[in-house]
Each structure stands twice: as structure tokens, then as C-alpha cells.
User: Fold these one by one.
Assistant:
Number 1:
Amino acid sequence: SESSHAEDLALRSGERQRLATNVLWDLDDDVIVVGAAGAGKSCLLRMGVLALAKRWADGSRVHAVPVYVLAADLAVDRPVQDAIAASVNADLSRIGSPNSWSPQFFRDAPAPGARWMILVDGLDEVIDPDQRRGIIGKLAGARDQQAAPYQLFITTRPLTDPELEAVSRWNLKHYDLIGFDSGQLEHLALRWFTALELPDPYQAAAQLSLAISRAGLKELARAPLMATLLCQLFIDN
């Protein structure tokens, strides 16, 4: 259900052009995606991991290997490769995996002609603004190293002016996550209701859309997290 949720997300570039999120995984640029609370930032990153891993598994030519890290794990006073390795190993430990990776593993390219795509989640969840700016500086510094094997992909809620200034010095491609329209909401609901084997998922999706409109919740339902919760509430009652 999370991947279905993420497939409905859409982006707006600096030129205000609306784009599907799947274009992100084919870019060669460093990227920052900004979205409000519940806009689907973490789901987007998980979708990126799944999409790129599937390409590798299928034997497709891929320019990047995804590595999901929490921004808070990069706030520590250590080289960026050490912080990445520690974050990945903590994730592996949580799922009971016996594997672990050394910092050296992330200092070299993952494969000929490929880079690590470092997917940095939750920059805004680092409370201290100095730490946030430090993380931005650390990532920019790592990317600027000669022959650095990294492509950087950062998600965050809207940044403060000093952080925007720090980011503006770094040539990031900027996108905004935009909320659902009514058609996307019905599409999301239809997939939920079909997967859960409701007797008539099309009618249920239409009923949910009507109920949201009558309750004055249309704007709230534009947030993907709230739309998902409303789908589940509708199913329960």
C-alpha cells in the first residue's frame, strides 16, 4: 500500500512544470524534494529504493545504487562515508541481518559507471538549525570531492531562509511535492479498496470522494498521509 501511495505522488519543478515522481530515478543531478508534513517524502524514498533495486535485479543498466539514510545519522562529527555506513548498519541490525558494511565500502563506486544514490530522509527532523546547516555543508562537501561516487537526493519540509541560502550555493535540482487532486484521490482509494477486496471498489471510491466533499475535507485530503488514513477510516466504518 505504501508503494501504491507513492506512485500517486507528483512533482512540480522550479519552472512549475508538473512531473511524475518516477522521472527522479533517471536524473544525473543532485536533487532536493520539498514537501509539507504528510506529503509522502519518506514513501517517495522507499519507492526509489524499490525501483532502483528492481532494475538491478532485472539486469537493467542502472546509473545509481540507492542507499537510504536518516539525516540525523549524518549530524555526527565523522566523515560522511563513516556516517553512511553507520546508518546502513543500524538499519540492517534492526531487521536482524547479519551483514554489515565498512566505511571503505562507500568510498568507492558500487560498480563501473555507477554511483551511490544517497537518499537522505528527514532533514527537517534535525531540530538544531546549526546541525541542519552542518549536514547540508557535509553533503555538499562530499559531493564536491574530485571523482566522488555520490549522487545526493534530499527530502525535507520547507527550509528556513539561512538554510535556503546554504542550499542555493549548491547546484541542486529543486522539486516540490504537490498534493492530490480529486482524480488522484479516487485512484488511490480504488487501489486500496480493490486490494482489500471490497465488493464494489469503484462505487466505494466514489462514495469516499463524495463523503470527503460533504464533510469539507477536500483540502485536508490533498495530503497523501491524510488521504490514506481517510481510506482506512472509510473501510472500518
Number 2:
Amino acid sequence: LLHESPEAARWATYAYELWLARFPTLGGDDGGWANGNNYFAVNFETLIFFPALFRRFSGTNFYDLPWYHNVGRFMVYTWPPGSVPDGFGDGVEFRGEPDERRLWFAELIGKELGDPYALWYVQKSLNGRNHGLEVGPVLAWYKARSRDHSVAETTITPRDWPQARAFRDVGIVVMHTDLADASHNLMVSFR
């Protein structure tokens, strides 16, 4: 409707300006999410849809923001593959390994930005499993528009990364003894 209705142009302008002014509402430049990992997942579709939509209309890459460049780190450190989440946020105590929606979001970020943290996260989490990740409507929309359906890979591993990370914008610190191997890892997280 954007070029068909004058009201649609106002709607698009409002959504664009609101998103730019408030994004990320629950994180800062360090890629964190203040409400915790469960609430973070509730926002995956919005975090994918709006930058893709605005890029389509403007030609500007809205994924090229500090938050997107760092969100892969947040995912790796606060909910490592083969592990449970950091313990912050409603319902995380009932969670096991990262779910498929989270992996699909990480893969999208990894491919969009060449983020080795996000790419390793997906690669390690899938661990040779079939990549038939189930997605919701917005994720499916994005995937349908993408020409690349291959599983992205990286050769970089957490052995090259620090074992601790502070996400100061959301007030979370996470420390690990072996980030690369959940079966040998002691994870300590605090606010």
C-alpha cells in the first residue's frame, strides 16, 4: 500500500522513525537484552523484519548497527550450545539447549554480518544434525527472500575468545571455564 495510499506513507514513516529512535529498546551497543533470553526470543521476528523491510525501501543496511554486530556474542556467552541459559528472565529455568528459532536468528545474523560468534553458535548447536529448522511466518518470509539457504560455517572457535564477557549495557557478566565444550564448562553469570 505504500505507493497506493497516502495513509500508508504516514504509517511507514511512523514505524520507521519509532524503530530508529527506540532500537534496541532492551539492549545497548554491546548486543545484550535486558529482559533475559526468553523475552529476547519473543522479539526475534521484529528484530529481523524491520531492518529487512527498511533496507528494502531505503537501500540502507540496518543490520549494520553495533547491537547486531554484538548480539552473537550475547547468545554465545549467555546460552552456550549444549547448555542452559544464564538464569536471568522468566522461564529460563525450564529451558534446555538453545531452540531452533534462536539458531535460525543466530544464523541470519551470522550470514548478514559474517559474525563468527553467531556462525559458530549455529554450527556447534546443530552438531551435524539436519538443518530443518522450523521458523515462524516472519522468519519464513525472510528465508524465502534469501537466495542463500546453505548452512553457514566458520573455522573460528571459542578457544580463540575470552572465557568471560561483560554486557554492561544490560548489566550481565558471564564467565566460563570452557566455552567451547558445555560438558566441561562451569558457567557463572551475575547482574
Number 3:
Amino acid sequence: ASGVACFAEAGALLALGLIHADQPAAVDVKSYLAPFLDCPLPTLQHGASLAVGIQSLGAADETLTEALKAILYSDDAVAGEGAALGLGLLWMGTMAATTAGDKREQATALANELKQYAGETQHEKIIRALGLALALITFQSQSVEIPQILLASTDPLMRYGGAWAMAMAFIA
């Protein structure tokens, strides 16, 4: 897949994730999407990352987390943006008080890891996506800890994420 075909295929992967977002157990879409996470083409990684995140919304799957983190740490702006958003979707709402303690602790550790990486990368697309990912992770948490840290950042993109995180934390 190259050129326009590559973008079309990435969009098709995203569409597949959207189609199966409300039925994650009915169809094993993850096994179809997993090879695309290892694909050397950043555009396909981007589409697959978003699809996996949407299809596994809030599932906090550790295998998918590691695959998405590998893409994120490759530091490619396009693939990294998708991976960051995919991680946010995959871990959405896992810092909420209703989440089991061990998952909440894992979510907090992931959030700290993502905040740290946001300070290390030079790609604005990735930083912005990490801010949004942190906001998704804090969904319904009713905690101001992460939003306040983000809002106090010197990076305007992280402050942007902080505004989203503050809003997401208190959605009922």
C-alpha cells in the first residue's frame, strides 16, 4: 500500500474499529488488526492504532498496550499520534473510582509514563495526542491531579490536554 491507497486502507482500518466498537466480544477484530500494528508504514499503524483503541475502548488490554507503546516510542509523528490516541481509548476511564485497584494503579503508571514521554518527544502531533490520551484515561475519575499537572505545564499543547482532562474527569 502506497500513496493514496495507503491512506484509504488506514481509513478502512479505522472504519472497521468503528463498526465493531459496540460489539468487542462478537467479532475478533483485534486479531485482524494486530498485524497492522507491526506494519512498517506509519499511516497504516496510525489507522490500526485508532481502530484497536476504539474497538477495545476501556479494555486496558496489556498486549495491545505494549504494541501501541512500541509504535509511540518509534517517535514517528504520524504513527505516534495514532498510537497515543489508541492508548487513551484503550485505557479510557480506567482511573475512575469504580475501576478495580490494580487497573487504576496500572492506569496511573501509564499516565505518568505518557506525561514523561510528552516532555521527551519533539513532535507536536504526538504531544497533542498524548494530552488527549491523558484526558481519556482520566474520564470519570473525578480527580484533579493529572489535569492540574497538565494545566501547570509550560508546554501549551499539554495545557490543552489539561483542559480536556479537567472536563473528562467530571463527566457523569
